[in-house]
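[Help] Beginner question about ligand-bound structures

Sorry if this is basic. My supervisor gave me a protein sequence and a SMILES string for S-adenosylmethionine and asked me to "get the holo structure". I don't really know what that means in practice or what format the answer should be in. Inputs are pasted below exactly as I got them.
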Amino acid sequence: MKFIISDNNQKGYLMSNESLKKSIEKFGKWMYKFELAEDVSTPLISEEFQKVHDTRKKMIFSKLDNIIKRWDNLRCLDIACNEGFYSFELAKKGIKEVIGFDAREINIDKANFIKKFMKVENTSFFVEDVEKINDELGDFDLVFVLGLLYHVENPMLILRKIRSLTKGICIIDTQVNRYDSNVDLGFGCTGFDKQTKDIIAIIKENDIEENITASITGLSFIPNKSGLFTMLREVGFTELEQIEPFPNSYEQYATHDRIIIIAK
Ligand SMILES: C[S@@+](CC[C@H](N)C(=O)[O-])C[C@H]1O[C@@H](n2cnc3c(N)ncnc32)[C@H](O)[C@@H]1O
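Answer (accepted):
No worries, everyone starts somewhere. Holo just means with the ligand present. The predicted complex, written as structure tokens, is below.
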């Protein structure tokens, strides 16, 4: 994958490949492979990540390219953007403005490094916990919530915030748990039993100190697909469409352990 945003980047290149490599190495391993110069790319945490990015980039943009006729008047928010890969993909489309944020400073330092190196004008990044985001950011034509919902302990709080920030389309990419049957429970008094198909799995993440892609609290509440749809409707999204994987998609998408929803 070549990652060239504009000709400026080539003109503005002031680093030798050796100093570029050293700068990249200072950041440690990366979540995305940015090809910055001939023979210089950011080293991945795991080669498998590339398959995830390739699959969902194709799934998301093949859909958006059909829906969006003009990119240049859109404001976009990339929630939990990590190193900003999807913000840069949107920048390449010529979008008016992309704002990305992530709870981890190291991720945003890397995003800013790429932004500066590539001279990408229409993106900006900041460090923040999604739980602390408020309406000051304004609202957005396009909101990306990729790879976040299975790393948070207050998914409804976060989804409510996301809904209020979205004036157009929200793209949600997440793992869902596999449970697909009814659960019975007592509810209040004897005889008041309930049944639900909307089930949440609770996962402890024990690597939050060293894993730059993880939760920040160590506890994640992950709904099944039925539960996710109920939650999305509950916060006010009225149109939900699941983007189907294409042949040879990364296994997690092919099996629907991981799904992508367009919510409006
Ligand atoms: C699996 S990565 C996904 C990164 C990117 N959105 C993508 O899908 O390629 C999860 C990201 O969420 C960030 N994150 C976790 N909890 C967060 C929170 N409460 N607020 C903001 N970012 C958070 C992590 O630092 C990490 O960059």
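A couple of things worth pointing out: The radius of gyration is 19 Å. The chain has a mean pLDDT of 93. Feel free to follow up in the thread.
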